[in-house]
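Onboarding guide, step 5: your first structure request.
Type a short instruction followed by the sequence, for example:

Predict the 3D structure of this protein.
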Amino acid sequence: MLNLKNKLKDREFYKNVIAVLADSKIYFKKTGNKGLEKKIDELIEQLESPFYMLVAGEYNAGKSSFINALCGKRILKEGPTPTTGRITLLTGGEEKKVEELDDHLNRVTFPLDYLNEVTLIDTPGTNSIILEHKDITENFIHRAELVLFVISADHPLTESERDFLQFIRGKWGRKVLYILNKTDMKTKAEINQILDFVEKNCYRLMGFEPKILSVSALQAMQAKLKGDKELLKESNIEEVEGFIFDKLDLETKIDFKLMNPLKYLNTVFAELNEKLEKKMENCNADIKSIERFENRLEMKKQEMIEYSQKFKGEIQLIFSRLTEKVENFINYNVTLRSVVMMKIAREKIEDKFKREIYGISSPGTDLERILDDITDYITRNNRAMWNMARDYNETEAGRSSMFALAKDGQKDQSYNDRRGELHVALKERSKEYREIDMEREGEKLKSTIQGGLLNFIVMEALAIGLAVGLTTVLSLIVPPVSVIALSTVIACVGLVIFPYKRKSFKSEFSKRVDALSERFIAFTMFEMEKIIDRVMEDIQNNIAAYRDLRWSEREDSNKKIEEVDKLHERVKAIIRKNSAT
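The system replies with structure tokens like these:
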């Protein structure tokens, strides 16, 4: 042990391994990976320990019997059923002692010289009916510097054995020595057939030619206990011991021991890189998915805004119909004949105006209906946007719990709040835009008609007076024809003033209505878009935290990939350098 430890520390290879292990531990500690941090500590500690030789195989293959045969003592319990659910470290010591290191690990010390240089590790069966046994074994494989894989001559290279061999060679790259046990149950010809079968199938199924040593652990133990040299030779245990303890010289053990943590790190960093790259892909996919969803929301918003032009047209139509009705009323009712007839009938022009313009179909009533339609449309489509978000969350984003949408009751409350908000905005606050003072408009019309009528009467009287009086007085000075012409002009002025007043009222009313229409439409469109934007904001606030999280996770993963790649390249460079030498 002293030679192995001293030789180990003298090599530059050792210093490089220790350095990369230390830097790897710092990375795992920084990233909060306590499991890997602990394994790094185990690997560093193991560099100070004897050579780890792990004995694996299916239960009833004779692993414990094989270890006992190597030691020449019945140290470990044997049996045809799974005899242990723990990993047992068998090391050298002054006396036999059993220690329980944790729930799955025992240490047995025994006074044998070669156990001071080699630690034998007994493991549960890889095909044990107790599934936990296989997990325990696989979680310890990374510490094995050499694997002795025991297979039984009565059922060699089963499917579960092939799976386990692919795991320890493919994933962890461990050196494996095959021990064909229970050869006492077969003839030499049968043993040769079994060896040929195992070699061919290892190459065919796993792509390598195995090193296989055959042994009868039963005969070896009997021979050592009885001192029977012939039986000992027949068991072939001496060839196995020679290979393990003699051919595996000090330099080879040092190489295996130093290469072991590097192979572990090589596997771990490759897996970490794959996981981080996968996480990056998932983050990118989620971010793009969120962007697509937000685009769909934006398209829905634009669709609603475009549809709102329909309401704009309806509002314009109501106000234009009002203007048209007023014009028709004035054209028909505000004439000299009509006014005179209403005076004779004692009918007030303002009452008739109010009755005919607002009596049958009030613009206020029509606008009220449109505002109800707008409120229903916006509320219905806002609910549709929430449902779209919910469906998206349950289908495309459900795997990663993209964002936490409000519960149905909360969403209904949100719809009701938004509906009430829109109702107040459009119906209560818009009264100033949609109400026209009927009394005031009637009085204006009455004043216009009276002014026009008075002017007409004055002008007509003036014209008649001129025609009668001035013809007599001025007949000696001005020709009669000129006097008549002047009277006619004054009469015409009287006729023109009334239509002018009427036209002036129509023009003024039309301008007021147009301005009212524009203000009402602008206000209504503004309130509609405001409510739509608020619902959009409600939904986007639900996904903002997740979107920011995925952005952050992507950036974090990218930084981790860079760090892992640097450490991984260092590990591979050390492996290449020492493999070449």
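Each response can be followed by summary notes, for example: Residues 405-411, 449-497 have pLDDT under 50 and may be disordered.
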